[in-house]
Design a protein that fits this description.
Blueprint: H1 2-15, H2 18-21, E1 42-44, E2 51-53, E3 58-60, E4 63-65, H3 67-70
Length: 74
């Protein structure tokens, strides 16, 4: 059933000319937003003492915890 539906669509697409599929224009500038600053701060887990990247710390009951100590399951 899937092939019955997809085969004509693919064949139609492959039969089209490039000019019907693509728009070619002059190169233009695209402003990109500023990337956030890298964060290399380290925090010590308040339960086991493991050093954890600040952006990976989980706060639980007011404590900064590593993933295993926080009980969070990914």
């Amino acid at each position: 059933m899937l092939l019955e539906v997809s085969k004509p669509l693919v064949e139609n697409l492959l039969a089209k000319q490039d000019k019907d599929l693509f728009t070619v224009s002059d190169v233009f500038d695209y402003p990109l937003p500023d990337a956030p600053d890298a964060n290399f701060n380290l925090v010590v887990c308040e339960s086991c003492g493991e050093v954890v990247a600040e952006n990976k710390v989980h706060l639980k009951d007011g404590k900064a915890l590593c993933l295993p100590c926080s009980g969070y399951r990914a």
